[in-house]
Amino acid sequence: MSLTPAKMALGLGSASAVGTGSYFVAKNLQSQDAPKAKVKLSEQLVKDGFTLLNFESGDTHKSEWSTILSKYKADTKDRLEGVSLSSEGGQADHEAKNINSLKLACKDLVGTEVASESYNKSRRWCVVPKGVKDSLVGQGKKVLNNEESKNDDRDSWAKKIASYDGKTLSLAGTDWSQATSEDSKITAIKKGCKTLLEKGTKTHDSEFSSEYETALRWCVS
């Protein structure tokens, strides 16, 4: 079956979504010959290995909500519709009100259909925080062995260095200009991946999407 210009454009659009850190949702927005059933964000998040936070009253995920509230207050990006942060009353009182506001907004958001922007917001604020490495594993990805002394996955690493130029989706701390042999290049890219995956960045952090994208490109098979 030949591809029409429209279908080719859709394919390029999906690739662009991956390029902006929206890998999770991009794979579900490919053009199809027949329409698929609409998917809610809550369903897609669970499918992608995330655990939804408790949106009801009670202390379940209390510490997670406190952390997310702190992150939410410190950032102006990815704001949730309907959230109004209060500073009235004592600290415990206004924290409880603010967490409840986040819960209500998340509950409404995850009930909507999958879309790139809303997916990123819900992944950031409405799921149990998860690191880059655990998110990759939750997606069924195999994280390459990045221990310098190990030769596991050498063939896979050799393929990675063949396309790594130190500029596109670069790994921090990797001095690519000093790596000249295959061994030194593999050592360098391993070091970069190890550093990235051990950083401790979580889904609620602003740099999560870009770091996930980088790890997906260079650190998994």
What features would you describe in this structure?
The chain has ten helices and no strands. The chain has 221 residues and is mainly alpha-helical. It has three domains: 1-36, no CATH class; 37-129, no CATH class; 133-218, no CATH class. Helix 7 (132-138) packs across helix 10. The protein is elongated and about 60 Å long. The model is unreliable at 1-21 and 28-34 (pLDDT under 50).
User: How many beta-strand elements?
Assistant: 0
Question: Which stretches are low in confidence, meaning pLDDT under 50 for 5 or more residues running?
Answer: 1-21, 28-34
Structural category: mainly alpha
**Alpha carbon gyration radius:** 20 Å
What is the ordering of alpha helices and beta strands? Answer: HHHHHHHHHH
Question: Helix count, per DSSP?
Answer: 10
| Helix content class | 40-55%
Query: What shape does the CA trace take?
Result: elongated
The span between the termini is: 30 Å
Brief overview:
With 221 residues, the chain is mostly helical. It has helices at residues 5-19, 23-26, 41-47, 62-74, 91-110, 116-125, 132-138, 154-163, 182-197, 208-218. It has 10 helices and no strands.
Topology:
Layout: H1 5-19, H2 23-26, H3 41-47, H4 62-74, H5 91-110, H6 116-125, H7 132-138, H8 154-163, H9 182-197, H10 208-218
Defining traits:
221 residues; mainly alpha; 10 helices; elongated; disordered N terminus
